[in-house]
Amino acid sequence: MTDDLSTPTAPDGAGTVTPGPAPAGSTERKELTVPQGMRHARIHGLGGYRPERVVTNEEIVQFIDSSDEWIQQRSGIVTRRFAREDETVIDMSEPAARQAMAQAGVSPEQIGVVIMATVSHPYQTPAAAPMLAHRLGIPNPAAFDISAACAGYCHAISLANDMVRAGTTDYVLVLGVEKLSDFTDKYDRGSAFIFGDGAGAAVVGVSDYPGIGPTLWGSLGDKADVITQREAWTDLRPQMEDPGREDGIPWPSFVMQGQAVFRWAVFSMAPVAVEAVRAAGLTPDDLDAFVPHQANMRITDAMIKALGLPEHVPVARDIAETGNTSAASIPLAMSRMLDEGEAPHGGVALQIGFGAGLVYAAQVVLMP
């Protein structure tokens, strides 16, 4: 990176390519300097952060017609974590990022790009990623947020992989972070018990061997109403223009059609997961871990069955204690599996995210 406007130098391994026809009226053709050949990339380090406050089902059912037994049967969730009121997605991302960087042995100066996957940073602009980069002391990185809901982390891993392989940068810091408690209607029986807060981080960088397989991803925009933000930010304008109003103007919150999400996740995502394994040149028997988005324990069980996953492959079940943390769920679950010895360092893992959009993404990775 550079702060001046001087002519950039070619990156290592760069060369020139023969361009197309010269512009009309010109006898010269310009030659572009570009990287030559593709490098390998892998995840070098993972980190996670769970807020201190543990929220039980007993607390949730004070506001909805439900019970601890019903919630556990329907979702597998026993507890979830809520951030403090003054704790932001940037606050939660910082310790997760520092842990991932320490595990990777990478200094702030080596990070060239910061990608933050989140749908709960409460500002349209500025993005959270540049502010996090500043806190971490990362000098002048490309930094931006992406909005792909529960598939955001897998989207960001794919982007980071492509950047490293193409020679755009040597190291990318990826965050999946959510403060969904800010956007949960505690009176909504269909969603109040589902969501939690947390942050997960990964450092993706240059590798001597392949560490991230091809990504299978896509979207179904015609199903946008299945999981959605109920109110637009502009719906708050009347209240902002007249703070004294008391006509029940709502705060934007996330809602979902539970049965539709379940059917889509089970019947449509399992084939995507199978294809992601096949695209990496492997079979389910080659896996050392399966880390699906922590949406619902019943969805996870159904996907295991549809995949024909061998019994020896450990499966992430972080949702029981963390709830659905959207973009944070996969890195949080994988880092827990590694920390607790449930999955092996250097092992092969299938990860798949799916959520609002509807959007999805899956890839096989080597765990750090």
From TrEMBL:
Transport: present as a keyword of the record? Answer: no
Q: Which GO terms describe its cellular component?
A: cytoplasm
Signal peptide boundaries: none
Kindly list the biological process annotations in GO that this record carries: fatty acid biosynthetic process; secondary metabolite biosynthetic process
What keywords does the record list, in alphabetical order?
A: Acyltransferase, Cytoplasm, Fatty acid biosynthesis, Fatty acid metabolism, Lipid biosynthesis, Lipid metabolism, Multifunctional enzyme, Transferase
The protein's matches in CDD domains, at most eight in alphabetical order, are given as: KAS_III (cd00830)
Q: Where are the annotated segments for ACP-binding?
A: 294-298
Where would I find the Beta-ketoacyl-[acyl-carrier-protein] synthase III N-terminal domain in this sequence?
A: 144-219
Record remark on domains? The last Arg residue of the ACP-binding site is essential for the weak association between ACP/AcpP and FabH.
- NCBIfam families membership: fabH, PRK09352.1
Protein name in the entry: Beta-ketoacyl-[acyl-carrier-protein] synthase III
Organism of origin is Ornithinimicrobium cerasi
